[in-house]
Design a protein that fits this description.
1 helix; globular; six-stranded mixed beta sheet; mainly beta; 122 residues
Length: 122
């Protein structure tokens, strides 16, 4: 499975941005998709995840109510809509895929995409 993330960039605090993650290859083996992020000097942390059907989602407390994860299975693509961005959201965001949603949330990632940098200016 290959994951291609896109959509990062520079945005002012309070603004919005949408990240995309396009999956290719044996995508049926990794039904759960999600996003992690790593800020400078910090460990990589879970952000959001979604089940194949889209009926199951998980969010980190720090992004609940501001970020929304979704997916389009016809396009094998997951999205992360980020609203009300804060400077502390600045990080490299990584797309991830795995076999089980809860395992993915816990960090059991089968495949990683390349990171995309999101910078939120104050």
């Amino acid at each position: 499975v290959q994951l291609q993330a896109s959509g990062g960039g520079l945005v002012q605090a309070g603004g919005s941005m949408r990240l995309s993650c396009a999956a290719s290859g044996r995508t049926f083996s990794t039904p759960a998709m999600g996003w992690f992020r790593q800020a400078p000097g910090k460990e990589r942390e879970f952000v959001a995840a979604i089940s194949r059907s889209g009926g199951g989602t998980y969010y980190a407390d720090s992004v609940k109510g501001r970020f929304t994860i979704s997916r389009d299975n016809a396009k094998n693509t997951a999205y992360l809509q980020m609203n009300s961005l804060k400077p502390e959201d600045t990080a490299v965001y990584y797309c991830a895929a795995g076999g089980r949603l809860r395992s993915l949330v816990a960090g059991a990632v089968d495949y990683w995409g390349q990171g995309t940098l999101v910078t939120v200016s104050s």
